[in-house]
Each structure stands twice: as C-alpha cells, then as structure tokens.
Specification:
Helix content: 55-70%
Number of helices: 2
Radius of gyration: 24 Å
Largest sheet: none
Strand content: under 5%
Shape: elongated
Order of helices and strands: HH
C-alpha cells in the first residue's frame, strides 16, 4: 500500500514471546515454575473439594467414606509433594547458580 499525504504514519507492532528474556537455565526453570506451582495448587484444591464432597455425599456408606478419605489423603500428600518440590528447586538453584529464583 502507498501512504498518502495526511495519512497517519503506521506504527510498528512488537510481539513478545513467552520465552523472551530467558538467558540461563535458572530463567527457564523460573518461568516454568511460575506456571506449574499455581496450576498444581489449583488441581490439589479441586481434589480436596472433590474428596470433601464425596465424604458429604457418602450417607454413611463405608465404601464411599473410604473412597472420599483416599481422595482427601491424596490431596494432602500432593500438597506435601508440591511444597517439597518447590523447596528442592529453590535449593538446587541456590547450590548450583548461587541465586534464589523469584518464583
């Protein structure tokens, strides 16, 4: 297209990708963890709600109560694993790269 006199000058649009600014492995892990930690916490919350709902709907049935307790237990075990994985990645980042990643 041609630009005519009096037409506004077109401006350039800059598109930034999700991996912009990643220079080291620590930067990459930090980007991934900023997504994974909240996503897994949301999944754990849903599992706990599901287990609680099943427990409320069990109506005293021992089989349903055991299933609900298993879901709740799995939620708490998952929460403990989530916290441990977060702390382990922070520790590895500190040991190998001498910096604490800001996630």
């Amino acid at each position: 297209t041609t630009v005519k006199p009096g037409d506004p000058t077109p401006t350039a649009i800059t598109i930034k990708g999700p991996l912009e600014g990643i220079q080291t492995l620590v930067d990459l892990i930090s980007k991934i963890m900023t997504f994974l930690i909240p996503a897994s916490a949301l999944v754990l919350f849903v599992v706990l709600l599901w287990g609680g709902f099943d427990y409320l709907q069990s109506q005293g049935s021992p089989e349903k109560i055991k299933g609900a307790q298993a879901k709740i237990t799995a939620g708490f075990v998952g929460f403990a694993l989530l916290i441990m994985s977060f702390l382990i990645t922070r520790l590895i980042s500190f040991i190998f790269f001498r910096e604490i990643t800001p996630f």
